Amino acid sequence: MTTTPTTQSVQLTVNGVARSGETENRKTLVDFLRDDLELTGTHVGCEHGVCGACTILLDGEPVRSCLMLAVQANGRSLETIEGLGSPDDLSPLQQAFRESHGFQCGFCTPGFVMTTVALLRENPDPSEAEIRHCLSGNLCRCTGYQSIVEGVKSAALALQAGENR
To answer: Which domains does the chain have, with CATH numbers?
Structure first.
């Protein structure tokens, strides 16, 4: 009788750095990032893929890391909020959100920011309707969303002006 191993080795690139670890087959990617790689910027919200708090970029595309197993990311490239900037050196996108007062408690912020990174890479000059449509899968319980939309608009202008990161 053959048994399936309960753990696997995972090798991936996270924010441009090769990372690896041994993980249970059923561990979600968000838990692997937070628990095993100690990248706690990606938040765990609903654990059903509805709220968007756990959004990361997988090979450049936004995905809900709570809906994916860590072993499914083996060999792939991931970007998390930690790859954008630091508290002392914010990326233009993070600075734009800060200046627009886009967030209050901050729990949803990483998911909104990573979703916006993907949007602005694909469409550097989105309309307000395109911004709202793109962000419609991310939930914030504190704001009315207008300041978040303003932050995206401001970030788009900053990036167009050459403030890349």
So the answer is: 7-83 (3.10.20.30), 92-160 (1.10.150.120)
Q: Tens of pLDDT along 50-92? A: 999 999 999 999 999 999 999 999 999 999 999 998 889 999 8
Cite the DSSP H helix spans in 8-81: 29-31
Between the alpha carbon of residue 95 and those of residues 14, 25, 53, 102, 151, the distances in Å are 22, 38, 19, 10, 9
Beta carbons within 8 Å of 97's beta carbon, 6+ residues apart: 103, 109, 112, 113, 148, 151, 155
Which pair of structure tokens corresponds to residue 64? 């809900």
Q: Please report the pLDDT score of residue 104 as a whole number.
A: 81
* pTM, 2 dp: 0.92
